[in-house]
UniProtKB/TrEMBL annotation:
All residue ranges annotated as the Methyltransferase domain in the record: 37-130
One Gene Ontology biological process: methylation
InterPro entries (alphabetical): Methyltransf_25, SAM-dependent_MTases_sf
One Pfam entry name: Methyltransf_25
MF annotations from Gene Ontology: methyltransferase activity
Keywords associated with the record: Methyltransferase, Transferase
Gene3D superfamilies, per database record: Vaccinia Virus protein VP39
Protein name as it appears in the record: Methyltransferase
CDD domains the record matches: AdoMet_MTases (cd02440)
Taxonomy, superkingdom: Bacteria
Amino acid sequence: MDSRTWDERYRAADLWGSEPNVFVREAVVDLPPGRALDVAAGDGRHTLWLARLGWDVDAVDFSTVAMQRGADLAREQGVASRTRWHVADVLADPLPPGPVDLVVVAYLQLPVQALGAALAAACAHVGPGGTAVLVGHDRSNLAGGTGGPQDPAVLWTTDDVATAARAAGLEIRDAAVRERAVAGADRPALDAVVLARRPVA
C-alpha cells in the first residue's frame, strides 16, 4: 500500500493501540535510555513508549497523517521534547543521522529485497554497543498463525532479517519465531523476532 492509502487508514481508525509490541517491550525495557530510531513507526506507539521511559526518539514513517497524530500525542503526553517526527519513505529517503543506541523496526512488511535494503539501512544507524530490535509477521503465520498480511511475498523469515542485520555489521543475539497472543483468536500470531547488537570496538 502507498502512503495515501495508509493516510486514509490512519484517519479512519486507531490501528495499533497505545501499548508497545510485547517483543519490543521485552527487549528494551531493561536498557538504559539513550537515543533511538523508530522506523516505520506508524502513529508512534513505540516512539511514545520509549519517550516516556526517557529515550530521545526519531520516528520515521511515510504517512503524514500518522506522523501528525504521533506528534499530537507526544504533546498530550508531555514528551514532545524527546520526540521528532519525520515523514519519509524508508525505501527512498535518507533516515535521520545516527548513530543511535537503539533501532526498532516493527511490522515493516515488504518484499524480501526491499525489506533487506530497508533493514540494513536502519541497522547501519546502530552505534557501538547499540541494539536493533526487529519484529515482523513471519511467513509461517500465513498457515499456522492469526492475522497479518496474507501475501507471502511480504512475510518475514528470521534468516532474511538476520542476513540484513549482519550486512550492517551487527551481531545476532537471538533470531526466532515467537508466538504472540491475539485477543479473541483461537491461535496465536507467529512473529519473526531478531535481536542484534553492534560490537564495541
